[in-house]
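User: Continuing from earlier, I have the next pair ready.

Assistant: Great, send them over.

User: Here they are, in order.

Assistant: Folding the first of the pair now:
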Amino acid sequence: MQRRAGRQTVTGIVVNDRTNAARVDYDRLRAILHNAARTGAAAQNRGGHHDFHAHLLGRIAWVEALNPGRGRRLRTDFERIDWT
């Protein structure tokens, strides 16, 4: 049983008043996007993803499905990355 005042999560999704990504997941993704724009995407691909571009787009789409406003902010940050 989860109380009203606490964060209510189901399968990693916060479901209190509306669906949302956990704050730590959102902040981590935003930091990756910020650092990729500053230092380059290759420096942020610490997981060794074959297609890091698609990986980030997938994570952004997941956040957009839960909270479109937050997703738009992440997509704006993503568009600042130089992929050349």
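And the other member of the pair:
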Amino acid sequence: MFKGSMVALVTPFSKGKFDEKRFCDLIEWHISQGTHGIVPCGTTGEASTLDFEEHYRVIEVAVKTVNGRIPVLAGAGSNSTDEAIQITKKTKQLGANGALIVTPYYNKPTQEGLYQHYKTIAGAVDIPIVMYNVPGRTSVNMLPSTVARLMEFKNIVGLKEATGDMRQASDLVRLCGSRLTLLSGDDFTTFTMLALGGNGGISVTANVAPKEFADMFNAWEKGDIKKARDLHLRMEPLNASMFLETNPIPAKTALAIMGKVEEEFRLPLCNMSSANRDKLREALKDAGIIK
């Protein structure tokens, strides 16, 4: 169910409020461009600044707008297992196709703690779960051996792997095989992870270049490795520009330059520096996204 180019969608704001109209327009644009799945309320969606009511509303609007055309994998993680269960239950109730659950941040649990966290959530909510390993954000790395242990739970179906470590990705494929849906969590690793046996990526850059990332996966699926590689290489400078500052500042700034959202963030995120904004604009021009 979860494969290809899945966009880690931004959450548009207008005067401090969730901008539902812009959000729906973004989803329609992504579907028309060939995006294979919508991921609301992740890191790129500024989920950590949404209150519970807003978080649930973003998921609800995403599910209703998509209307079954492509999967919706909604962010539902927390550094509290009980809170993650609460959010995941609501995610299921709202009709999402799955829950993306990040490893607990700040707590720095052991590998056994990570195992117990996901085991407890999987036992409490019958919904497909994609785990999310992003040590750069959480300060904890869920090891392949821990992921392999969790494969005993049928509703744990996948992992968004954002270490950037291809040896770790290789170990995941070796230990878990086709039982695990492996999704890249870093755009620069998506092509390589496909070569290792991965299934796609949850992309930041797809926010601004959805067709290119969908085309790359489609080419790979058809066996056109050269086209897929060429698209990967062409998008690499744009991938780098998405991290000139903390994600999602560049992605949302780029979408504002493109006229698709307001350039509005919630503190502690703030507007991009003028120097980096100029670099971002050049990257968008070079990629053919803007003129």
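Worth noting for the second one:
The chain has a mean pLDDT of 97. Residues 149 and 155 are 13 Å apart (CA to CA).
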